[in-house]
Amino acid sequence: MTVLHTNEPARPGGLWDNFFKINWVFNARRDLVFLIGSVLAGWAVFGLSTVLTGDQMLMLWFVWVITLDTPHFFATYSRTYLDREFRQQQKPLLIWTLGVFLVGPVCLVLAYSMYGLGSGLFQLPWTFFAILVSLWAYWHITRQHYGIMRLYHRKSGETGTLDSKLDAWVLYGCLLVPFIALVGRHPSSRGRVDLQGAVPWFPAREEGQSYIGYFIDLRWEHQIIAMTIVVVAVLLTIFVGRQIQRLMRGEKLPLPKLLFMGAVLPLHIYICYSDQMLLTGLLTFTVIITIFHDLQYLAIVWFYNEKRYGGEPKEAKQRYGAAHTISRRLWLWMGCAIAFSVPIWTLGCMINRIPVCATGPAVGSPTILGSTDWIIFFVLVTSGFQMHHYILDQYIWRPGKDKRLREDLKVETVDRDSQTVAS
């Protein structure tokens, strides 16, 4: 076994080094800008949502989906289907995951079959499909944050420790539990299950009323929201208490991981409980939490591209094919990614799927689902790409099981005592 020292630059000793250990995934600048600081983009969109009109927010969504969100799907394809070596090694994976494109058509066929049989619940399969895509999208974002946190665990030697398990509980809990409160309050999500109107924040407690009596008198939605707040508060208290305990024991805290958690958790918690979200569509919520995710993902894939395709040009091109060709320059790679997204969303404009760029009346014949057949087709295609990206990502980013991926990401197992990288 060869033991190599980490590539972290030497730092002068002092008060800072007495309390923190610093192990970045990429380096200080890239981590702080893309993995951590990109959360500011989410806060910026939230701020804009308080001053922009509905049409203006829709235009903002349209620009975002072309320049960042759809390109981050392309980033997945550039390192899989366009990578000659990956295609040869993972051909079964790249074929069977395409089956997810059939989920939407199956739900559509079920809806029409139920309609033909006279069932009043004929829209249920299509509603299920829409809810599935939406919930899977949020789970996908949560899983990416977890994956980045795991990279920080690897870099700081916390893999398999009590803290890695606690961090997982805190991350999942503080992202998923507040989301329950949001979908239980928002008029759009409530409308999908025939619940009317938004749920405002808690009513004032009457003078002299006990807290138990106040809780019992609340409507059931408020009771659920209150329980989610308690869960989040407990998780955060345990997390902070654990950091204090580690300091009291003389342990150094992993600063980059804490900065990452400090970026992710407040955004999701605040946005999910904010009354501002009840005044906008869930599309705004999607942009706020996903723009952060997109920037992280594009940065990770580009870092991967640099390491994997950065060898001798002739040898790398023969080995990796188109993936190497388009990954020679960042502008070329991003240009291809945007070029991938433009035709898709141009079609959406042409068939009147996207009002801010509609070219005329909706194209196609009306359907039983309240839209035209062309729009249904468009939804099937775009949702298929979303789900395919989600499921493929679950298999291609597993550094714990893929030694080559660890090499490409420059992430190896760190010994917790010596703080060296073993390979």
Write a structural description.
The protein has 423 residues and is an all-alpha fold. The chain has one domain (30-422). It contains 19 helices and 5 strands. The strands form 2 sheets. The protein has a 3-stranded antiparallel beta sheet. Helix 2 packs antiparallel against helix 14 (282-308) and helix 8 packs antiparallel against helix 9 (162-185). The protein starts with a strand and ends with a strand. Residues 1-10 and 413-423 have low confidence and may be disordered.
Count of extended strands: 5
Structural class: mainly alpha
Q: Output the strand order for the largest sheet.
A: 1-5-4
Distance between the termini: 6 Å
Q: Taking all residues together, what is the mean pLDDT?
A: 89
Uncertain segments are: 1-10, 413-423
Question: What general outline do the C-alpha atoms trace?
Answer: globular
Q: Tell me the number of helical segments per DSSP (H or I, 4 or more residues long).
A: 19
Spell out the helices and strands N to C: EHEHHHHHHHHHHHEHHHHHHHEE
- Rg, rounded, reads 24 Å
What fraction of the residues are assigned to beta strands by DSSP? Answer: under 5%
Largest sheet: 3 strands, antiparallel
Domain count? 1
In helices, the fraction of residues equals 55-70%
